[in-house]
């Protein structure tokens, strides 16, 4: 949500507890100032327009043509951006010194630029294709020329050998006919044709086999590998190729060879057997290649300059097109008057924004030289308004956590206020280690210090989510340091930070890790857990008991807060039924059982009793009249337990029975005589009220059975939830224990074990394994696990006591909320 009025500070505004008061407004806008009015309202971003043309398709609306124009311009801008990214250019950030540009002029300019860029690209592509073909042609001439020169030198050498020897040994290179034989049989000579080209290296073997099979071996094929990959003229990609020469006899063989070349994607080039003509052709091709290269470079330079010019204006044009498109989308939501001289708009806006909206309407009237000003009036409706909280960059991420569960109903109590503190605290209870907390703090500070840079960049999904919750992570780390100091754990290692341990050895025989030989010799350790407990035999029983009871205390306190929030909701909405028949019995039931358990935990800590709280709570239900014996913590405890048990039992029918009957009586009183039609009143106001009463409040049939079943489900859910939700808070103890034990295992079984070998290499490996295990398991996986469990405790155990979350978010027409991909 936009930071309207929220400021940039870190403290939440006081109105975060309830959403902003909203009202439904109607604006009658003259047609000549409609565009400018929508533009000014988009600048302030404080009104959510209603679609008054919902029955019309997008093509039937008034401004469908303008939206199509804007869509076409947006397509051209996307094309420019794609071309710039291919060229390695980035759009220049917008500057404020440039003057305004008219949309019609921009449309013409974008059309001209697109046509020019398409023409440049087409010419460049055509020239590049010709250049690639010449490069391949040159390779064919060089490789084939080498083959012919090698054959000619071989023939010369053989002729010399024949001249010097009478009976030479025949080889594969020996001509089948001697000169004399060939002269005597001139009529039987056959003219061989030749085809030259390049074939992809991966297809060369198959190419050779198919040629052999298709012509039954009546062709002669020579291939030579090209050392470097060449750019294929057809695809424009680099491909490794072989130069081939095919000698054939007859037109039928030529036809077969041509078809095979086409099937294998082989590029063929003309070739002459005369060596002198080959040299001349190579020189000509080299000259044409260098000329084409210069032409291509000049074309690329021109294209780069054109894209550079576009890049300098791109952001400005893109913002203008997106603004215009959003303006016409908004104008399409307004209903047009019968006279077609004005537009009628309806929408929700915060009450505090009334003056700003009226100022924007006045400015639009003046700037558009309209003879008639816009008319602004407030409508009365029973339709529920949208929910709008003014947040800042600090509170926004906490509000997002709440909104992910459900958007608050209009003006119901917002749990986001308490989530700012309770969410990081519950996380820290499960993640208590001030060493790990410092690591997360450094990561959070890094994100905060680079806030300006990252806020303007497109990040990945995970990075964007982490950056968005940077202030949540900051508070999570600070609370983790605090709880880590209470647990006295720094990567599972205890420190005597605030004073020496209160326990000392009774004699020299107590060097073993046990508290049996320790006695209290100093003052109590002032803050957190005494370091002497760590590593002792009784560490786990002591810390388990402490964390388990602490989890119950925290859970009961937070659930009580949730029920108290339901009281404030009922008080605000003037719902006395919920106060007397929901809030009071819920408080009695929860505190009669688990509030009493919390009281016993604190009392036991204060007086140092050895009473068994399990026994007390179990037999409070099974045998409430039995004597407590050694489990008695205070006088008249049995009587108090009987009273609390009786009140808890009474609270169940108190929640269930009265409320449905009272609601039925209220409904009957409210709709008594509803069949009569009012004779007096403002027709216009009645029509407005009727048109906006979309939910039909006050006209629904009262189904007593449905209300009673709903109340029955609600009662059962609360009674069972009081037990299950309290047990659910024990996850604080379980995850805290798991985190502590994992940290201890990594420290003792990796770092200390490697230290004990007295070997630098093993120690280095141990340190690396310890770092990776700590970061991967404890700082990533454990952080995510504790985050999700804290999220569940807020959504299920806390918010279900009071939070309905069935509202809908205020989504104003605002240019600041436009995304790059808005359609």
Give your account of this protein's structure.
- With 823 residues, the protein is α+β, with helices and mostly antiparallel strands.
- Helices cover 58% and strands 8% of the residues.
- It has helices at 34-44, 64-86, 103-164, 179-184, 204-214, 251-263, 275-332, 354-367, 395-405, 416-430, 434-449, 451-455, 461-468, 470-487, 539-572, 576-607, 613-622, 637-656, 658-670, 683-692, 704-728, 731-755, 760-798, and strands spanning 22-30, 48-49, 193-200, 220-225, 230-231, 238-239, 241-248, 267-269, 335-336, 342-350, 375-379, 503-505, 518-520.
- The strands form four sheets. Strands 1, 2, 9, 10 and 11 form a five-stranded antiparallel sheet that branches. Strands 4-7-3-8 form a four-stranded antiparallel sheet, sandwiched between helices.
- It is flat, with a radius of gyration of 43 Å.
- The two termini are 20 Å apart.
- The model is unreliable at 1-14, 180-184 and 675-699 (pLDDT under 50).
Would you count the extended β strands for me? 13
Count of DSSP-assigned helices: 23
Strand content: 5-15%
* Global shape: flat
The rounded distance between the terminal residues' Cα atoms is 20 Å
Can you give me a brief rundown of this structure?
This protein has helices at residues 34-44, 64-86, 103-164, 179-184, 204-214, 251-263, 275-332, 354-367, 395-405, 416-430, 434-449, 451-455, 461-468, 470-487, 539-572, 576-607, 613-622, 637-656, 658-670, 683-692, 704-728, 731-755, 760-798, and strands at residues 22-30, 48-49, 193-200, 220-225, 230-231, 238-239, 241-248, 267-269, 335-336, 342-350, 375-379, 503-505, 518-520. It is α+β, with helices and mostly antiparallel strands.
């Amino acid at each position: 949500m936009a930071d309207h009025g929220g400021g940039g500070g870190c403290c939440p505004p006081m109105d975060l507890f309830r959403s902003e008061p909203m009202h439904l407004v109607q604006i009658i806008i003259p047609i000549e100032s409609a565009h400018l009015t929508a533009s000014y309202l988009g600048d302030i971003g404080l009104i959510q327009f209603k679609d008054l043309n919902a029955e019309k398709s997008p093509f039937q609306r008034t401004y469908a043509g303008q939206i199509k124009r804007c869509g076409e311009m947006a397509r051209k801008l996307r094309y420019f951006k794609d071309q710039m990214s291919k060229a390695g250019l980035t759009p220049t950030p917008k500057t404020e010194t440039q003057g305004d540009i008219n949309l019609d002029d921009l449309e013409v300019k974008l059309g001209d630029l697109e046509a020019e860029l398409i023409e440049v690209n087409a010419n460049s592509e055509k020239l590049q294709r010709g250049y690639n073909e010449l490069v391949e042609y040159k390779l064919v001439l060089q490789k084939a020329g080498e083959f012919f020169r090698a054959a000619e030198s071989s023939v010369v050498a053989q002729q010399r050998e024949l001249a010097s020897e009478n009976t030479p040994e025949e080889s594969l290179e020996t001509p089948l006919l001697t000169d004399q034989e060939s002269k005597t049989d001139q009529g039987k000579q056959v003219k061989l044709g030749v085809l030259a080209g390049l074939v992809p290296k991966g297809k060369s073997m198959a190419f050779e086999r198919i040629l052999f099979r298709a012509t039954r071996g009546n062709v002669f094929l020579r291939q030579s590998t090209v050392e470097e990959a060449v750019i294929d003229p057809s695809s424009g990609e680099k491909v490794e190729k072989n130069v081939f020469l095919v000698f054939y006899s007859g037109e039928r063989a030529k036809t077969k060879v041509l078809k095979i070349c086409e099937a294998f994607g082989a590029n063929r080039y003309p070739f002459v057997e005369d060596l002198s003509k080959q040299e001349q052709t190579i020189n000509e091709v080299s000259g044409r290649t260098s000329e084409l290269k210069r032409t291509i470079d000049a074309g690329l330079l021109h294209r780069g300059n054109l894209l550079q010019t576009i890049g300098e204006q791109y952001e400005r044009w893109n913002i203008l097109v997106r603004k215009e498109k959003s303006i016409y989308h908004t104008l399409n939501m307004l209903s047009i008057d019968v006279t077609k001289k004005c537009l009628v708009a309806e929408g929700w806006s915060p009450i505090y924004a009334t003056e700003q909206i009226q100022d924007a309407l006045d400015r639009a009237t003046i700037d558009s030289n309209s003879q008639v000003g816009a008319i602004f009036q407030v409508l009365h409706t029973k339709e529920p308004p949208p929910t709008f909280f003014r947040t800042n960059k600090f509170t926004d991420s906490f509000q997002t956590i709440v909104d992910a569960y459900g958007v608050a109903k209009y003006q119901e109590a917002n749990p986001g206020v308490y989530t700012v503190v309770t969410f990081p605290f519950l996380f820290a209870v499960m993640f208590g280690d001030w060493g790990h907390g410092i690591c997360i703090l450094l990561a959070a500070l890094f994100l905060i210090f680079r806030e300006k840079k990252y806020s303007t960049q497109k990040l990945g999904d995970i990075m964007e989510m982490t950056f968005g919750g940077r202030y949540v992570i900051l508070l999570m780390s600070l609370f983790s340091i605090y709880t880590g100091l209470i647990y006295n754990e720094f990567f599972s290692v205890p420190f005597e930070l605030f004073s020496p341990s209160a326990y000392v050895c009774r004699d020299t025989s107590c060097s073993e890790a046990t508290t049996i030989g320790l006695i209290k010799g100093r003052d109590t350790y002032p803050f957190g857990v005494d370091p002497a407990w760590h590593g002792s035999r009784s560490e786990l029983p002591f810390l388990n008991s402490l964390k388990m009871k602490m989890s119950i205390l925290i859970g009961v306190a937070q659930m009580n807060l949730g029920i108290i929030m339901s009281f404030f909701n009922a008080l605000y909405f003037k719902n006395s039924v919920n106060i007397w028949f929901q809030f009071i019995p819920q408080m009695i039931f929860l505190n009669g059982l688990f509030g009493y358990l919390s009281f016993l935990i604190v009392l036991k800590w204060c007086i140092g009793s050895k009473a068994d709280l399990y026994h007390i709570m179990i037999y409070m239900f099974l045998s409430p009249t039995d004597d407590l014996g050694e489990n008695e913590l205070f006088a008249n405890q049995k009587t108090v337990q009987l009273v609390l048990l009786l009140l808890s039992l009474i609270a169940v029918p108190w929640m269930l029975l009265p409320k449905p009957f009272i609601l039925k009586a209220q409904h009957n009183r409210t709709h008594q005589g509803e069949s009569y039609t009012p004779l007096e009143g403002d027709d216009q106001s009645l029509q407005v009220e009727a048109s906006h009463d979309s939910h039909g409040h006050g006209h629904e049939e009262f189904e007593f059975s449905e209300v009673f079943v709903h109340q029955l489900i609600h009662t059962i859910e609360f009674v069972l939830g009081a037990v299950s939700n309290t047990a659910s808070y024990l996850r604080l103890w379980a995850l805290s224990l798991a985190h502590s034990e994992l940290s201890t295992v990594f420290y003792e079984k990796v770092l200390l074990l490697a230290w004990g070998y007295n070997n630098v290499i093993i120690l280095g490996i141990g340190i690396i394994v310890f770092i990776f295990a700590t970061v991967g398991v404890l700082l990533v996986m454990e952080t995510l696990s504790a985050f999700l469990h804290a999220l569940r405790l807020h959504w299920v155990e806390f918010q279900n006591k009071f939070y309905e979350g069935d509202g809908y978010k205020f989504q104003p027409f605002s240019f600041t909320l436009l995304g790059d991909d808005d359609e």
